[in-house]
Amino acid sequence: MTYLLGAILACFLLVLAIQYGSGYYNYVSIQLLIAAIVCSMLMVPALVLAQISLVETKTTLTFSISSMILFTTILLVLEVGLGLQDVYLHYSQIPLFSPFSKGMGWIIMGLLATYLLHVVDRAKDRLAANLVNYRFPLIIMLSVILKIVAVFASYINKIDVGVMMQESSAYLLAGSNPYTSATAGYGGFNYPPLHLLLPLPFYILFGDTRFGSIAWELIGIGFIYHLAKKELSFSPGLVRLTELALLIFMLQPRGLFVVEQAWGEPLIVGMAAATLYFLYYKPDGLLAGILFAAMLAIKQYLVFMCLPLFILYKVDWKRYGTIALTFTLIILPFVIWHPFEFFNRNVLHFFRLPIQTNSLGLTAYFWEHGLLIPRWLSPILAGLVSLGLGSYLRRFGLLGYLHTVILTFYCLFLFGQQAFANYYYLLSFFQVLTIIFFMTSYRQLRQGKGY
Fold this sequence. Notes:
Shape: globular
Helix content: over 70%
Low-confidence stretches: 82-87, 445-451
Number of strands: 0
Radius of gyration: 21 Å
Mean pLDDT: 85
Order of helices and strands: HHHHHHHHHHHHHHHHHHHHH
Number of domains: 1
Structural class: mainly alpha
């Protein structure tokens, strides 16, 4: 029970840290972030000492479900009730969006309250039975509608990544190299190819790449929910807890901000979920390696997910060959198109970035106090954590892998040159996955498979 409640608290604190300052630096946000990191660190010894058989007990489920409902409600009340900010979006062009989003928030909170029906032993009521079947997809549908409206409600031409995504998509469709074609005020495209290619069909169909962000986030939720529902079918209580864990991620108010800004992390959510799904069911299959390589081709910092994977599977040349070949095939056309500019925009550009003094991390904190954290510190710390923790938690399989990735990225972001809402939004997804994969580990133990 200690592990499960610790994981829920770590997730809540992280989402609250993002929400309080929209992922920008302020003193309260950095304190909440550090508290979330401490919880994540304490989860490691809790995992080692955990008695997974406790996860199905009525007391544990009651506490877990109640705390998840409480935390999600707090996040929504802070946003739609008390209003930490006037609107969800930074560039709203529809005055009615704020009251609309608040109304949706109260409806969602009402649906969340129905999860308490099971905590108070009213699961046999007819109303409760109907709500069990429809509440989760209904809340997800309302969340998706809210994000679609958010895209229509915000100005894409005021957002740096949004401008880059829109104009680079247009350049590519016109036959021009997006890495050599300057966008308005931002130079060429700055990310690996799939950051542009995954949402490209949505740009073609709807004229805005941000619809692709919504779709890929939904794909990620679908993969993980299907896995959890299949593996945890023996315990309706654990399925309910899975739903709430996914909802605290899906309903975090700054998720709208991430979609508005056209950041690439929702694409990573979809691809990472698909990768973990096939690593869980077909770890030796080619598809898991192909999907992992595709994920690496979305954003540069994801390379730090490689070392713990190599530690997890040790010498597996077929897997690593598949990853290397797939990644090469994805980037090769753009490398051939213009080798220097591809390297310049994807690698050299990020070594030239100045310190973002408004980013949510210790670099901004120390800069405010006259101290400069050297640029090389964050990748070295991240590498050491990845190597040490990956080796230590290897016996816990994908659950240990997720813990390693979370703490590796915390080192990378906390001491890096920049870290905003999108970076921690992705970490909140991985944190939710630790809750779900911990519960699936219980089934593996019941079947005598170990971790």
